[in-house]
Input
Amino acid sequence: MYRKILLGITLSLGLSSISFAGDPWMGPQWTEKFCDYWNKNLQTTMAEWAEYNFNKQKGYKTISFYRQDCNPPKKVEVRIKYENSKAVCIYGGEAKDSNPEFLMYATDENWKSLVKGEFGFMGMGIMKKMTFQGSKVEAMKFMEPFKAFLIGLGKVSYSDTCP
Output
């Protein structure tokens, strides 16, 4: 009888540790789902940014990002095309663009703070919480849309495992 109880407890604990939350956060599959989220929620918010200083040779803008705590870091990207006055995500997945307009990375703790909207005074805490490569002038000009982008990173279900 005790064996059955012990087996039941063991199975319950084992099954409860399995995460049904989603794909690894900022992994290629998760980023594909984030692209879908973008197209449902950020097309209008990010439209002015997508049109600004548009790269006509590439035909899109790229935002690459990764989790600094994962070893080795796995870069992912979203490609955004300005189309019909909207910012359309045309690709989300493994980073392939060797010259993204923006590259962002942070520790998991800082990413989780940013996706909660904890930006600090006038959004200036963003640059303290993440490493950012790209036009800081452009990022500052479109601070509000970028805040929406950062908060959006927390809206697609994920697991904390590294990709």
Observations:
- Residues 2-16 form the longest helix (15 residues).
- Residues 19-152 form a domain with the Nonspecific Lipid-transfer Protein; Chain A fold (CATH 3.30.1050.10).
